[in-house]
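Hi there,

I know you've been waiting on this one. I reran it after we fixed the sequence typo, so this is the corrected version. Both the input and the resulting structure follow.
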Amino acid sequence: MLNSKRKGNITEVECMLAFLKLGYNVLMPYGDCERYDFVVDIEGKLLKIQVKTSSDSHINDGYIVFKCANKTTKEGQFVRHLYTKEQIDYFMTSYNGQCYLIPVEETSTEKRLRFTPPKNGQLKGVSFAKDYELEKMVKIIINS
C-alpha cells in the first residue's frame, strides 16, 4: 500500500515527465523549502508549479478533486496555508494518464475537475477537466 508521500512523489514525477515529453525543461529547487515543486521553462517563461495528487473518490459523480492548501502544525494546532500568485503560478495534477494545469487564481481551498456535467444542470462556475489538459494550457501560455 502506498502512503500519501509516495503517491505525491508519483504524481510529481508524472507531471514533470509530461512536460519533458512535450520538450520543455524542468528545474527543481534544492531541498524541500519552496512552495512550488518545480519550475518549467516554456519558451523562456519560467512557471512555478505546485503538484497535488487528485482523489477519485467522486469519479462516479463525474469529477476528481484535489486540495489547494497545505497543513502544518504550529504550537500543536493545525494551520492551513493557501497558495498565492506570488508563490506559484499553477497547480498541476494527473488522472488516468492525463495531466492538468490549473492557474492558481482559479482555485480556492480545493479544485474539482469535472468529466461530466453536474446532474442538476448547473454549469456556472464548473471547471471541466478537458479545458485544463496540459497540451491545451501550454498553447494558451505560449500565445499569452
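Quick highlight: The radius of gyration is 15 Å.

Best,
R. S.
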